[in-house]
Specification:
The protein is an alpha+beta fold and 613 residues long. It is 65% helix and 9% strand. It has 19 helices and 9 strands. It has a 5-stranded mixed β-sheet, covered by helices on one side. A 4-stranded antiparallel β-sheet has the order 1-4-3-2, covered by helices on one side. Helix 4 packs parallel to helix 6, helix 12 runs antiparallel to helix 13 and helix 15 packs across helix 17.
Length: 613
């Protein structure tokens, strides 16, 4: 058994021992467990609940002074809730000694609870200046006061209810002092908001309904034994604060708890007003109260909740615009700088630093909400944001979701920018290839033309093609049969100008057609092949053969020139462009060369979206 489990077992054993003691007192004085009322069982539940909660926190952190005081308060609550239980099954008026003992246990437990809680809030979450002296004074004053009351040396008007009332105000005073002491500590503020809310609900309700009326000899509004249940609210809240459980959510929970508590109080008060001041029966009065609360209070509560809990300083449309502007910045440095600026405007952290390490691509809350860590994104390294809202708050779940959505949006925008950049690069590459293959080939033909009129015509056609290239003529396309006819006339003129014979063969099955992109590639590949034959081959004849079977169109260009070694020749823009174009249309390219000349075979997929296997 581990040490925490052993300590908790001791706590449970103490609680069991207390139950046995109550049972023994009842049996010793002629009572029976069967005579216990609902209120008696409720007292036992509250006492054991306080002990288990406080004892559980202490078992986990036994060396902490704050948890020790919390455990003492749990023990005290157990004593003042258990002590009155025997009175529910046995009248002890005839036994002064047992009556005195039970009253002493009850009064001592109540006083010890107040002393322990005041001392707790003197040291937690921060140790207040002079906490030792103040704590000692609290112990001496309230302990001595209670001792005088229990020994009969203080009149009833200054009895234990009055002591309890003063102790409750002492708890509130310590909480207020802690609030000012934690002005520069967001963690402590989050703890105090939760502790203050739970104590306000629990202790405030007990004071208003029991302690205050009883201290001034008035009838309590609620049976004090039932009102013990308010202390469970205090214990649950203190356990969450001391355990620092999901510290970054404590503030939100506290505000919501207060809002619901106020709604309950307003509902009860309004129901009472309608019953006592208007001639309404309880049923209609309750229904009308619920309607009024729903119509008036709930909208006000929602508005107040958004005002208190929402921290984002940018509207959704502004965030979207800022992210898009950042993603499409030209330089990586500008993108990283603007990304930091968005985070700074949204969360207002005191620190934005590069994170040394990251855990994947997840946004994380660390250090109890003081730090928000974001992964590398949009050319920005991983970042950590600390002390949000100028050190006045903590990162919570809703801020985590905001950051996750922001990162997702930035990734999508960054991917769009990358796609845009790729498109720009591909378009530049297309223009460069077309300029080399088409414009270069046509200008070369015009250069070798001996007829002035034909030279002018080819230059004008070149200018037309140049405009088509700039406007991406490949997107329009034309029928294959028309393109083949144009290419034959163009090729024949170019070769004739260079004194090279043309052998042109076409064997294309009906129904064979190419996509606009493939048609454009066919024209460019043929022009490049013919240009290479004119400039480099020293050929006397060039053969061009087009074959199509409905699924694949094959272009074969061969010459009877000197040839070259494909493995050793330097591959310039011409051959590189041929390979790039064929890859772009998912086609195939083969090149053979030797003493008998050079042969280039290009296979184009017929139809739209096809691929050469």
């Amino acid at each position: 058994m581990t040490a925490p489990m052993l300590r908790f077992a001791l706590v449970a054993a103490f609680g069991a021992g207390a139950l046995i003691a109550v049972y023994a007192v009842i049996r010793t004085h002629g009572g029976s467990i069967g005579g216990l009322t609902f209120i008696s069982y409720w007292q036992l539940v509250v006492g054991l609940g306080a002990l288990v909660i406080a004892g559980g926190v202490w078992a986990l952190r036994p060396g902490d002074l704050a948890t020790r005081l919390f455990f003492i308060s749990g023990l005290a609550t157990l004593t003042f809730t258990f002590a009155p239980v025997p009175f529910s099954v046995r009248d002890f008026d005839g036994n002064a000694e047992i009556l005195r003992i039970l009253n002493t246990i009850n009064g001592t437990g109540a006083t010890a609870f107040g002393i322990a809680m005041v001392a707790l809030f003197l040291i937690y979450p921060n140790r207040l200046p002079g906490w030792r002296w103040i704590g000692t004074a609290v112990l001496v004053v309230f302990g001595g006061w209670s001792a005088l009351i229990l020994t009969g040396h203080v009149p009833g008007t200054l009895g234990l209810h009055f002591v309890t009332l003063i102790e409750m105000f002492g708890i509130f005073a310590a909480l207020i002092a802690q609030y000012f002491a934690a002005s520069g500590d967001p963690k402590a503020r989050a703890i105090l908001i939760w502790l203050g809310g739970s104590v306000t609900l629990g202790a405030g309700a007990f004071i208003a309904l029991v302690a205050f009326p009883s201290a001034f000899a008035m009838t309590a509004l609620v049976d004090a034994r039932l009102a013990f249940g308010f202390f469970l609210i205090i214990y649950i809240g203190c356990a969450a604060g001391l355990g620092r459980y999901r510290l970054f959510e404590l503030g939100d929970w506290a505000f919501r708890a207060v809002f619901y508590f106020i709604a309950a109080i307003l509902l009860v008060a309004l129901d009472a007003v309608l019953i006592f001041f208007l001639p309404l029966e309880p049923g209609p009065a309750l229904g009308l109260s619920v309607l009024i609360i729903a119509l008036l209070y709930l909208p006000f509560r929602d508005s107040l909740s958004r005002l208190v809990l929402r921290r984002a300083s940018l509207a959704d449309k502004d965030v979207f615009r800022a992210v898009m502007d950042t993603a499409f910045e030209v330089s990586a440095e500008a993108r990283a700088r603007q990304w930091r600026d968005i985070l700074g405007r949204l969360f207002e952290p005191l620190e934005i630093e590069t994170a040394a390490t990251t855990d994947g691509q997840q946004v994380q809350i660390r250090d109890d909400g003081l730090e928000l860590r974001l992964p590398a994104i949009a050319d920005s390294p991983a970042l950590r944001l600390r002390y949000p809202w100028r050190g006045q708050g903590l990162f919570g779940p809703r801020h985590l979701r905001t950051a996750e959505e922001l990162c997702t949006l930035m990734r999508q925008a960054d991917a769009s920018r990358a796609a845009y950049d790729r498109g720009v690069a591909e378009e530049r590459s297309r223009i460069a290839r077309d300029m080399h293959d088409n414009i270069g080939a046509q200008l070369l033909g015009a250069l070798h033309s001996r007829e002035a009129d034909r030279k002018d015509t080819m230059i004008r056609e070149t200018l037309t093609d140049l405009r088509d290239i700039i406007n991406n003529a490949s997107s329009a396309g034309m029928a294959l049969v028309n393109l083949v006819a144009d290419l034959r006339a163009e090729t024949a003129e170019r070769l004739a100008a260079a004194d090279i014979a043309l052998d042109w063969t076409v064997d294309i099955a009906p129904g064979t057609d190419l996509s606009p992109v493939a048609l454009h590639a066919l024209r460019s590949v043929l022009r490049e092949c013919v240009s290479n034959a004119i400039r480099h081959a020293g050929a006397g004849q060039v053969g061009v053969r087009l074959e199509g079977d409905g699924t694949i169109l094959t272009l074969t260009v061969n010459d009877d020139g000197t040839g070259f070694d494909p493995d050793t020749v330097r591959r310039g823009n011409g051959l590189g462009n041929l390979e790039s174009r064929m890859a772009g249309v998912k086609g195939g390219l083969e090149l053979t060369s030797g003493e008998a000349g050079t042969t280039i075979t290009a296979r184009f997929p017929a139809g739209i979206g096809g691929e050469v296997s």
